[in-house]
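Q: Structure tokens for this one, please.
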Amino acid sequence: MSFLKLNNVSKFYGSTCVVANMSLAVEKGEFVSLLGPSGCGKTTTLQMIAGFTDVSSGQILLDGRDITHTKPNSRGLGIVFQSYALFPHMTVFDNVSFGLEMRRMPRREREQRVKAALVLVHLEQLAGRYPRELSGGQRQRVALGRALVIEPPVLLLDEPLSNLDAKLREEMQFELREIQRKVGTTTIMVTHDQTEAMSISDRVVVMEAGRVTQVDTPYQLYEQPRSRFISTFVGKANLLTGRVSATGVGAQVDLGHMTLDVDVQGLPLGADVALSLRPEKIRFVPAGQGQVDGVVTARFFLGSQWLYHLGTPAGELVVACQNGDTQPLQVDGHTGLAWAPGSLRVLAGLDAANPIGAAA
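A: Here is the predicted structure, written as tokens:
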């Protein structure tokens, strides 16, 4: 049995549905991220798990126990908010100790637990400081230590890194994951940052308009997106639309100005399809030696890589390539574009949620 289960959980505000029939099973010790754009229902889902928002319908089970209508303070969950919500008049030590004091834990045991938590989040040298004397990353670690010190069955993270600058945010992603692995606490994190979710999660739950569109490992989610939305929201993708003009071992898709071979079986003849092709899957070859030729219309230097926009008979394509030893292509330069047969992902219908040939 899964450690945390959501069974057809929905949330309505009047006639407006914010979360619709969400079902999710989280295993003990797993790190799961709820990913999606603003307004997709991910924070509302987290708040329903925490007990801060009432469930309109459905059921939430924790280790086999129904907590759907249990008060927040009786669920025993650890929560880290986007704003950290630290007490400004308390030291780091006292902030971390607060939850244990509310549970009336004996002083000696409380002090031992707090010291262990501070070591875990690398703040043992700053126990006597106040939040105003800490950096953003240090305040984030105080909030994390305060949530973990109570040894919660589930740790809930509501965009915990969104207030940090880019460099510190990247560092804290991996530190957060390292701490979670050491403790082994089941963790659910809300984020709208695809890189953040992909880099530290065991599984990612992609939400759109209050519904779950795909639940998968980061690699599978990126390589086998199940919809046009996921193709473009999780990373970058070139989307091409066409109609299946021939079938056999694979298939051919007519894009209007050209035809592409697709290494997928089971496509019905005449079906309208969308093709997804990741920019980094495309490589430059001499003109005439790839699937299509193109002309560079724009290029952007990103440090470790170049991002090119090219006009082709298939439409505009975006290509990402490493900044290596070769000279970059110039604007208006001509080149051939090639990719492996399996790099094209075929979405079953222009607006369908599930692709043909994609792994479940």
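A few notes: The mean pLDDT is 91. The first strand starts at residue 4 and ends at 13.
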